[in-house]
Amino acid sequence: MTEEMTLVPERADTLPIEGAIDYLKRKFPDAVKDDTRQGYSGIIVDPAHLVEVARTACDELGFNYLSSATAVDYLGIDDSMEMVYHAYRISGGGALVFKAQTDRNKPEIPSLIEVYPGADFQEREAYDLYGIHFPGHPNLKRILLWDGFDGHPMRKDWKEAYYEQETKPFDSRWPKGYVRRAEELNVFGKNVKYPADLDLAKLSDMSEEALYSGMGLGVDVSSFPAQADELQTDRLVVNLGPHHPSTHGVFRMVVTLEGETIVALEPVMGYLHRNHEKIGERNAWNHNMPFTDRLDYISSMSNNLGYALAVEKLLAMGARYQPPTYRAEVIRVLMVELTRIVNHYWAIGFLLNDLGAFFTPALYAIAEREKILDFFEATAGSRMMCNYMRFQGVAKDLPERIRSVASHVNDKVRDFNTMDYLTELINERIPRSVDELDRYLTDSEIIKERTIGVGYLSPDMAIAYSTSGPLLRASGVPYDVRRAEPYSIYPELDFDVCVRHNGDIYDRYLIRLDEMRESIRILKQILPRLEKTQGESVFAGNKAIYMPRVPIGEAYGRVENPKGELGYYLVSQGDPKGPQNPWRYHVRAPSFINLTPLGAMCRGQKVADVVAILGSIDIVLGETDR
Amino acid sequence: MYGMGILKGLGVTFKHFIRTYLDDIKYAGRKYLRQENFEARQGLKADGAFTVMYPEEKIAVPERFRFVPFLVVEDPDHPERPGEDWCTSCGICAKVCPPQCIWIVRGEDPVTKRPVPQPEAFFIDIDICMNCGYCAEFCPFDAIKMDHDYELASYDRTRNHIHDKERLSKPFSYWMSIAPTTAREEAAARGGWEHPDVIKEFKKSNRTPTPVTEDWQQAKMNAAAFVEAQKAAAQAAAAAPPAAETAPTVQSAPPAAESTPSGELSPEERKRRREEALARKKAKQEKAAE
Questions:
Q1: Would you list the DSSP string of A210-258?
Q2: Looking at the structure, do residues B41 and B82 belong to the same domain, yes or no?
Q3: Which residue in chain A has the smallest CA separation from B178?
Q4: Which of A334, A347, A474, B161 could cross-link with A508 by S-S, CB 3.0 to 4.6 Å?
């Protein structure tokens, strides 16, 4: 091994992906082998050596940013379970994909939390949904589901309460589609199953202990004798949420307090869990597009784009694929950047809510957002659930006029020329309102007092915890998927990756303003491109294919969503003709993974700041809980 | 100096507050009366309060707005095929529907057991519908469309929220009224204002579909003219009265032959099937009326 090692160039952390894989294969000849399955890439690592390989990849090869870690169940294909890891270099470039396979009956894969702390929630999710054990994980318990849930729902042999058929379209809908309601199948609603080892008496136990059991917390005054010169305080557990106006949804934080100072914080989520990924696997490829709208419902356009890009990567392996037309790409970028502005209006407005400026700033921001939503509504047909992107293009060209038709009593119509509307929106309205927000908020002493130096996240920690988006960039890490691994027409657009260096709430607020300004800059470059491509097709290929077949393989598509990096890991397997349904559909949700360092960020802060720190991460529960 | 930031912030708030009233003064009380004022208030030049006083005034939804599908049927006063479905019960909408909220019973000939291009029943569970618009987007016959009627609140979800064919069916003129531009684009793609199958039928029998350059009402007038001409021709030929009366409808009937593997059918056979279908429909209507 040592002889071969000398052949390796000195800077292993700049090797291209192939070189890095060779490096790993040389270093671990027994443990690492190529993934040779059709349409797959990366390496398969022996679980016994997984931690060493990951450490080498992270420390020596520079793949220090674990974007996604997820499990796949190959029941009926090779009857194994697999963990798939996508690690990137924070300096940009493609992914090092490594996988570890394990037996389905006794799945066990060593935890990577020592190497990548960002694997924390993702491994817990894999444990929760697939039942894979991760020896070495300090807190391996369910994260999205509750303890009384029977089974691991993402396993291929698990069936939901109203199970009808393995995949859509369901046969009962046509040609003999006699309607029935799901409730009719289950009149008394008794579809709950408990695991055999669950103590049902515990469920009706309303005591404090039961409430916080499993949190590793508890009221224990005696263990902390107060100093004589200090105010005597109790150690106290406070439950923030699940119903709390500041949690941006149904989200719970169990906070242990020492006086007013936070000793530990544990996020509890999953109240909005609907097993999006299982639904996604029952769905056909096309069906998933409107479901992605419901992830981060503030920015549905970018969710659509991420999914379209991931599926296009798979389609590109087949023969009949045509890349989206130039106009389609232009429209996609237009929509996505407008979405970023929408999202940041929202994020800033509600951050101010969390700081106590109740709803005045939020309403000013929302009023501006309305103008963009009007455009979305006229183009895509819906304000929030846009469902606008398609594989190889977009659903429809921009309308000539943003025009409404009166069809109700008291309807008032509006009629604008689309290009004029967009031009005015981008050149005047949005810059003016961003400036106004800036003028209104940036210098406010209250905001500065409440936010500067609060909720600090260091750059190293931000990378290690796999955070992304404004949270990562406000900590001084200029990482933006649009530049790190460009997609669509971003390479030809002129914009800067915003970065701020203090890593506190104030910088996270400022970076959102910066990003809005960069988005305006991009949009200004998009306008002439829209004019130039007027009348060109917005869809490549045959639009009438309603049930596309996707070539066998895997793909990981990621986009820079307003809230961070949104990734879709897709596996197409099974049917040799090209399956109609995804075998695996995984969403790497930025809101979910950005919560990993929440506990660390809040430690030592005051209880009043928790709400602001959470607000500065900018989560949306539709995406966190999936 | 302390307090400046707060004062500045308050200044912005105050300006927003004032703007609303300035707006009122600007329109001198006519703020809510005139159409242009509404457009200005709800456009990019608006300042101050942006509220719409629902339900006294409502923002009309744009053409592409989508909310719960409906089925397009021919207008009731259509001379040739009054009230007939555009839907051919091909099932594409049911298959492409992401939450699978569409149930279709395909029409079937009671004698031959062959499918006929007409749905026997059609249900949409609007509690499940996610308003994605795929059914309208992928329908090859432009027969299912997304509605604009968003005021669907009701007291009983178990009875009112499964829309059946009767509830879903809306005439083509309604579709024209809510989405004229889209309807025109689609008609241009079909090659005429008529149903795609009717256009196909026309081409076989040397009738020209109504060009999209003309008003859509022209399609009805053309059909009426055609019916008149047929009647006149029949009278002139002094043929047997019952045959002459049904002749035009036979011409325009949805081509049952299209979906059968045997290809062309004799006119007698088609007439027989047509009559059977009408009898079935009538029987069903009577049943429904009960």
A1: HHHTTTT----STTSPPPTTS----EEEEEE-SB-GGGSSB-EEEEEEE
A2: no
A3: A405
A4: A474
Q: Which domain holds residue A355?
A: 276-405+413-625
- Residues B51 and B74 reside in one and the same domain: no
- Nearest residue of A to residue B108, measured between CA atoms: A175
Tell me, yes or no, whether A589 lies in a domain: yes
Radius of gyration of chain B (CA): 26
Indicate the number of domains in chain B: 2
Where are the strands (E) in B19-73, listed by range?
Answer: 58-59, 69-73
Span A25-36, average pLDDT: 87
* DSSP-assigned letter for residue B213: T
- pLDDT tens digits for range A586-601: 999 999 999 988 888 8
Mutation target for A interface from B61, B113, B181: give the one with most A CBs within 10 A.
B61
Query: Do B76 and B176 fall within a single domain?
Result: yes
Provide the mean pLDDT of chain A: 85
Residue A82 in domain: yes
The 3-state DSSP composition of chain A as helix, strand, coil percent (nearest 5) reads 40, 15, 45
- Within a domain: B77: yes
pLDDT of A480-495, one tens digit each? Answer: 999 888 998 999 999 9
Q: What is the pTM of this model?
A: 0.86
Residues B6 and B108 both lie in one domain: no
The answer to whether position A461 is within a domain reads yes
pLDDT, tens digit, 9 for 90 and up, residues A258-270:
888 888 888 888 8
Asked whether residue B157 falls in the same domain as residue B32, the answer is no
Tell whether the model's pLDDT for residue B238 goes beyond 50: yes
Residue of A378, A385, A412 lying closest to B131 (CB–CB):
A385
Q: Which residues on chain A are in Cβ contact (under 8 Å) with B177? A: 405, 407
Contact criterion met (CB < 8 Å) for A360 and B13:
yes
CA A549 to chain centre: 26
| Chain-chain contact of B60 with A174 (C-beta, under 8 angstroms) | no
- Chain A residue with CA closest to B91: the answer is A174
Dihedral pair phi/psi, residue A556, rounded to 5°: -125, 110
Helix (H, G, I), strand (E, B) or coil at B169: strand
Asked whether the beta carbons of residue B100 and residue A424 sit closer than 8 angstroms, the reply is no
Could you say which of A75, A102, A130 is where a domain stops?
Answer: A130
Its ipTM equals 0.81
**Which residue in A381, A428, A439 is closest to B66 by CB distance?**
A381
Subunit contact B162:A413, Cβ cutoff 8 A: no
Identify the domain containing residue B217 by its residue range.
69-289
Chain B, nearest residue to A366 by Cα: B50
Same structural domain, B36 and B138: no
